[in-house]
Amino acid sequence: MKGDDMQLVQIRPTEQVSVDQERLGLLYTQLGEVGAEDVVCRAMEELALRMAHCDRLYRTRDQTGLRKSVHTLIAIADQIGMGLVAQVAKDVIASIDQADDIATAATLSRLLRIGERSLTAIWDMQDITL
Fold first, then answer.
1. pLDDT tens digits, residue range 33-78?
2. What SS3 class is residue 90?
3. Other beta carbons less than 10 A from residue 48's beta carbon
4. Nearest to residue 76, comparing CAs of 46, 51, 56, 109?
5. If residue 92 lies in a helix (H) or strand (E), which one and from where to where?
6. How confident is the model at residue 20, as a pLDDT?
7. 19 touches 122 (CB < 8 A)
8. How far are the Cα atoms of 49, 67, 87, 106 from residue 64, in angstroms, in the given order?
9. Is 21 left (phi over 0), alpha (psi -120 to 50) or beta?
10. Chain centroid, CA 18 distance in Å
11. Backbone phi and psi for residue 100, each to the nearest 5 degrees, phi listed first
12. Over the stretch 3-40, which tens digit does the pLDDT of each residue have?
């Protein structure tokens, strides 16, 4: 095959994301509807800001700052039932700790994709319940 006959194919990986309904239900039981919605909204906002911050830290090659920022994502994600986000954040930390730049790039990219899709899923759930 000649070089000019090749086509570039862009792969867009997708994964099924889910929100732990039981975890959210527990928040609503513990805090009441208004309190839980406040916690969820604040957590979603913080998660979105932190993900953008992680992207910036990666691009500036601040591995120490990136590790710290990703670590905070774990607690936020766990709080609002985003188990997959928390797990992938742990994978990012592991790749940083192993000084594996390629794995860090790949897992961070996965974290940002899953994080965005999870935020959309939880936002859509709130639209349904309101």
1. 999 999 999 999 999 999 999 999 999 999 999 999 999 999 999 9
2. helix
3. 13
4. 46
5. helix 83-97
6. 81
7. yes
8. 18, 5, 19, 18
9. alpha
10. 12
11. -100, 95
12. 556 665 665 666 777 788 888 889 899 999 999 999 99
Global pTM value: 0.81
Sequence-separated (6 or more) residues with CB below 8 Å from residue 71:
89, 93
115: tokens are: 């994080």
User: Which band of pLDDT confidence, cut at 50, 70 and 90, is reported for residue 128?
Assistant: very low
What the block records as the tokens of 96 is: 């940083």
Measured CA to CA in angstroms, residue 125 lies from 21, 85, 108 at distances of: 10, 17, 25
Residue listed under structure tokens 């086509």? 7
